[in-house]
Amino acid sequence: MILIALVVFVGCTLWTVFHSFTTSRLLPRTDWAGLAQYRRLWGEQRWLVSIENLAIYGALTLVFSLVIGFTLAALLDRKIRGEDVFRTIILYPFALSFIVTGLVWQWILNPDFGVQAVVRSWGWTGFTFDPLNNPDIVIYGILIAGLWQGTGLVMVIMLAGLRGIDGEIWKAARVDGIPAWKTYLLVIIPMMRPVFVTALVLIGSGIIKVYDLVVAQTSGGPGIASEVPAKYVYDRMFRDQNLGQGFAASTMMLVSVAIVLIPWAYLEFGRRRKA
């Protein structure tokens, strides 16, 4: 396992970073180009749009996934009747591939026979809901599909964390007359900190590599309005046969993850070491 980690992960990462400073096109080359690939990358409108879309999609996915997932978990934790059925229904979308999810929501959001057509058939003829063809809000149409598929997993993780809380804590809170919402906010959620960290890591990894959902729904359109970094990398490397540019974009994605992960890891493990 150590050998695989060193060769596949560390070795290939260093190989990619090195070739991002070269003039590699169809095949890898060692002709040094300095920061030329990065200057070209950050001067391209398509890459800037992809970064903006990833920021919007990522921030909203993190917030809504955690809020909706925890809320659903808290409701199911009340030992409601038919819990297994509800849990299965909510988790079911996670069993689908992103391609299937993207195609399903492409049909649902289609103005000719989707939500817009159904609402208009009820008499609201002025109703308009066509996010996938509107460049200003297309990323929110993709966000809906992503939340529909991924929220179930977050719910299950949160539910497992809630089921691990000692029931005596709830009894003590009720005896002291503490409202349920305040018990969740001040007692339960702080105790579930490791669970939230796990959920954040899983959600974050899905955000960074989002690709197939965009391809299935919009193929990056209209125009380049729904472009994301993973699609940009794939198109540059395999469609345009520009390995150097694709490697540079991949390295920037790695740097963005490191900027978030390294300070968090330092604070997390530093706090444990002091404790």
Structure description:
The protein is mostly helical and 275 residues long. The protein has one domain (46-274): MetI-like (MetI-like fold). The protein is 71% helix and 0% strand. It is built from 13 helices and no strands. The protein starts with a helix and ends with a helix. The model has no long low-confidence stretch (mean pLDDT 89).
Could you name the key traits of this structure?
275 residues; MetI-like fold; 13 helices; 71% helix
Please count the helical segments: 13
**Binned strand content:** under 5%
Query: Class in CATH?
Result: Mainly Alpha
CATH architecture: Orthogonal Bundle
Find the CATH topology. Answer: MetI-like fold
Intertermini distance: 31 Å
Helix content: over 70%
Task: Report the order of strands and helices.
Answer: HHHHHHHHHHHHH
| Domain module tally | 1
Number of strands: 0
**Main beta-sheet annotation:** none
Q: Quote the average pLDDT.
A: 89
Radius of gyration: 23 Å
* CA-based shape: flat
TL;DR of this structure?
The chain is mainly α and 275 residues long.
Q: What are the SSEs and their pairings?
A:
Blueprint: H1 2-19, H2 36-42, H3 45-76, H4 83-91, H5 98-108, H6 115-121, H7 138-163, H8 167-175, H9 180-191, H10 193-208, H11 212-217, H12 229-239, H13 243-274
